[in-house]
Amino acid sequence: MKAVTENCYVNLPLRYIYNTPEYLDLFIENSIQPELGLDCLGSECLSKDWLLTIRDRLAAAGLKCTTHLPFLDLKPSSLNPAIRQASIDTLCGAFELAKIFSPERMVMHPSFTSWLEPPLFEEAYENCLDGIRSLSDSWPDHPMLCLENTYEYDPGPLLQLVEDLDRENIGICFDVGHWHSFSKGSEKNDFDFWFDSLAPYIRHMHLHDNMGRKDDHLALGEGCIKWEHIIQRVKELNPLPSITLEPHTRDDFESSLRYFREKIAPKLF
Question: Distance between CA 181 and CA 186 in Å, rounded?
Fold first, then answer.
């Protein structure tokens, strides 16, 4: 179960470390670089001393990290001013936490409401655009901030968002599992359309599997995503994006690492 490659990570929410400290031991012992999830459901895992301890342990092991900004109950595009402001405030606070870890990448959900009709969608879009600008302005030289596809029906809004932001340190995190399930990619078989649309801005990717009906976060190879074709397309990107595996159970964690090492990494790197 040893490390995969230098530019690859595996998701590890801070609350997992807080509730089960052995998870951090597992990553360090096996030289696995984490994508630290900053969604804490309370303040118990936000002690600065505790966070510094995690940072120091990763540094001592020579491990880099990425961070995933909070997303639960957050909506920077909200048409409700109080919800929108609370979301931006929470994300700005997460930026401060991320500084502790000097992450290689930061991932954020823009959280569009795709079903909104004009002019409400345009208003929500502008809210999201303004919110991300203010977030980025709070740390002007921040690491690459990668905006992740979630529930979008097509890649257009996410692509437009990155182009309108027009900042060198803002790109896209292409989540293959979300495309396959939330965006009905399993039915539409439109990976190439999504990939070609987003390719100029893809800086990071999330890999996990599902059967197309829901966001299962299965181990790679346990669903019906056509990984061979996807990896062939990813190889076209220069530079290659960083990659995070996103299993949600211990068994899927081990299976995903094995699948990645044996069937993806040799073709990609």
Answer: 7
Residue 266 burial (10 A CB sphere; 0-12, 13-18, 19+):
exposed
189 Ramachandran zone, left/alpha/beta (phi>0; psi -120 to 50): left
What is the b/e burial string over 223-257, where b = at least 16 CB atoms within 10 angstroms of the residue's CB? bebebeebbeebeeeeebbbbbbbbeeeebbebbb
Q: Is 138 left (phi over 0), alpha (psi -120 to 50) or beta?
A: alpha
By the 10 Å C-beta count (0-12 exposed, 13-18 middle, 19+ buried), 179 is classed as buried
Mean pLDDT over each residue of the chain, to the nearest integer: 95
176 φ, ψ (degrees, to nearest 5): -65, -40
SS3 244: strand
Query: Any bridge partners for residue 10, and if so which?
Result: 34, 245
In 3D, which of 156, 97, 98 has the Cα closest to residue 125? 156
Cα 194 from chain centre: 17
Band of pLDDT at residue 208, cut at 50, 70 and 90: very high
Domain boundaries, the chain: 8-268
How many distinct helices (H) and strands (E) make up the chain? 12, 8
For residues 27 and 18, give the distance between their C-alpha atoms in angstroms, rounded to a whole number: 14
If one looks up domain 8-268 in CATH, what number appears?
Answer: 3.20.20.150
Query: In this predicted model, what pLDDT tens digit does every residue of 10-22 receive, in sequence order?
Result: 999 999 999 999 9
First and final C-alpha spacing in the chain:
18
Structure confidence at residue 113 (pLDDT): 81
Residue 115: per-residue pLDDT: 82
In the three-class reduction of DSSP (H, G, I as helix; E, B as strand; rest coil), residue 126 is classed as helix
